[in-house]
């Protein structure tokens, strides 16, 4: 079933977070950076698999917003979105990098997005297809 907790964070709470069971088993850690600025870039905390759709959201802290936002990758402007959301329909390794966004309220901190190799399910399908082709 899982469990969760909701806390109010301040910048000094930045760091590595993970879940741990009573018996000492634990999940992989994720690094969370808490920043006090007005603009936040919502992006995947964990690596994303090549081929999946990813949406980055430029938000104002504390309130939902749909302000026009500029999205940057590795310091270069890549797209302007009037909804504040930028979707990459099928990520590839070339999409890996350091992202940030700006809107009329300011600039978000930079966030690294990691892209991992091809989806194993797609690889399995390709292997099965190759097997039948050989037959």
Automatic annotation (TrEMBL):
Keywords: Disulfide bond, Signal. Gene3D superfamilies: Immunoglobulins. It comes from the Eukaryota. GO terms for molecular function: transmembrane signaling receptor activity. Residues 37-116 form the Ig-like domain. It holds the Pfam family Ig_2. InterPro entries: Ig-like_dom, Ig-like_dom_sf, Ig-like_fold, Ig_Fc_receptor, Ig_sub. The keyword Disulfide bond applies. SUPFAM superfamilies: Immunoglobulin (SSF48726). This is Ig-like domain-containing protein. PROSITE patterns: IG_LIKE (PS50835). One of its GO terms (cellular component) is external side of plasma membrane. It comes from Hucho hucho (huchen). One of its GO terms (biological process) is cell surface receptor signaling pathway. SMART domains: IG.
């Amino acid at each position: 079933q899982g469990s969760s907790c909701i806390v109010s964070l301040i910048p000094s709470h930045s760091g590595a977070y993970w879940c741990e069971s009573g018996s000492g088993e634990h999940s992989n850690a994720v690094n969370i950076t808490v920043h006090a600025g007005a603009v936040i870039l919502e992006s995947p905390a964990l690596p994303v698999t090549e081929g999946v759709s990813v949406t980055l959201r430029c938000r104002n802290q504390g309130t939902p917003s749909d302000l026009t936002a500029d999205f940057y990758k590795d310091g270069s402007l890549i797209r302007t979105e009037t909804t504040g959301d930028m979707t990459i329909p099928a990520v590839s390794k070339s999409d890996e990098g350091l992202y940030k966004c700006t809107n009329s309220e300011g600039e978000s901190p930079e966030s690294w997005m990691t892209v991992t190799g091809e989806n194993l399910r797609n690889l399995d399908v390709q292997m099965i297809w190759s097997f039948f082709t050989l037959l």
